[in-house]
Specification:
Number of helices: 8
CATH class of one domain: Alpha Beta
CATH superfamily of one domain: Bira Bifunctional Protein, Domain 2
Order of helices and strands: EEEEHEEHEHHHEEEEHHEH
Radius of gyration: 19 Å
Shape: globular
Largest sheet: 9 strands, mixed
Distance between the termini: 37 Å
Helix content: 25-40%
Structural class: alpha+beta
CATH architecture of one domain: 2-Layer Sandwich
Oligomer: single chain
Length: 294
């Protein structure tokens, strides 16, 4: 018994996700105007309202529910999917990383599979698989191993090359029955995580993989509202550069973020987890009706 409270938060919000790599669905409310903004955004995760509950003192909590991401449909993605997200008060990202790993391992044991576990810092991961220091290498050095792929370099930044190295050259080499934990990312990939000062600074963030599949992404959560506002604004600047629409900031979150307790949070994609448990490479095998047949 872990004493984590199940909660339910809105699927429609007055604000969206500013992340330039994630696109939201929107809809319009046709009722009376005093109900607030007519434009509503389908959530890409329950993160923002869960943090508002944490700021009100709810304590350890989780939500299992549907989330939506526009433009993501195919063999491994469905625009509508299920996410499990939970928060632990007083924990850091490393402690939560091991709890997330335990959850996946326990499910695999139920399937009569006994996974190995291995953890790498982000830097150690790149050194182990590619002999590249991701913090010190130039962009040209990061791009060089990807030369055999048809990648248009126009507009790609350092973090884009790092992501491509992971998806094209590192993830495919993860053993099928191994849970891989990766932690302490470049500060430029902080999203909503704290940054720990060191040489170089790192984002207190982790990702969890089973075989080559990314299952979960977690943070030692930032509760500095001014810093978070600055990050949201940088996201929107990046969106402008890409010709994407800017997204309104979640002022309700920013108003209470400073009251949020020290905590860590993680989000896990359930269909991706089911794919791993079923040992299939096609998300349609774990959906009653995929996007094309919905």
């Amino acid at each position: 018994m872990r004493s984590v409270l199940e909660v339910e938060t809105p699927i429609l919000s007055a604000c969206g996700n500013t992340d330039p790599n994630i696109e939201s669905f929107t809809t319009r409310f046709s009722g009376h105007r005093d109900a607030g903004s007519a434009e509503r955004w389908l959530r890409t995760s329950p993160e923002f309202p869960l943090k508002r509950l944490l700021a009100e003192g709810i304590g350890d909590c989780y939500e299992l529910g549907r989330v939506f991401r526009n433009g993501e449909a195919g063999q491994r993605h469905n625009p509508e999917f299920t996410m499990l997200e939970w928060y632990r008060v007083g924990w850091d990202h490393l402690t939560l990383m091991h709890e997330a790993c335990d959850l996946v391992a326990d499910l695999l044991v139920m399937m009569r599979r006994r996974p190995d576990r291995q953890k790498f810092s982000y830097r150690a991961l790149f050194l182990h698989y590619l002999s590249i220091d991701p913090f010190a290498a130039t962009e040209a050095e990061l791009a060089a191993p990807l030369a055999r792929f048809s990648i248009d370099p126009a507009g790609l930044l350092r973090d884009d090359w790092l992501d491509l190295l992971i998806t094209h050259l590192i993830q495919p080499r993860f053993p099928a029955d191994r849970i891989t934990m990766v932690y302490d990312y470049p500060a430029s990939q902080c999203a909503l995580a704290r940054i720990r000062p060191r040489d170089p600074p790192v984002a207190e963030r982790f990702e969890l993989y089973l075989g080559p599949y990314e299952l979960a992404n977690g943070y030692h959560e930032l509760f500095d509202a001014a810093e978070q506002r600055s990050r949201f604004e940088r996201d929107n600047a990046r969106r402008r550069e890409r010709g994407l629409r800017e997204v309104p900031l979640d002022e309700s979150l920013l108003a209470v973020l400073g009251r949020m307790p020290a905590c860590a949070g993680v989000a896990m994609g359930i269909e991706r987890l089911l794919m791993c448990l079923a040992q299939t490479d096609d998300i349609r095998d774990v959906l009653a009706f995929d996007f094309a047949r919905a």
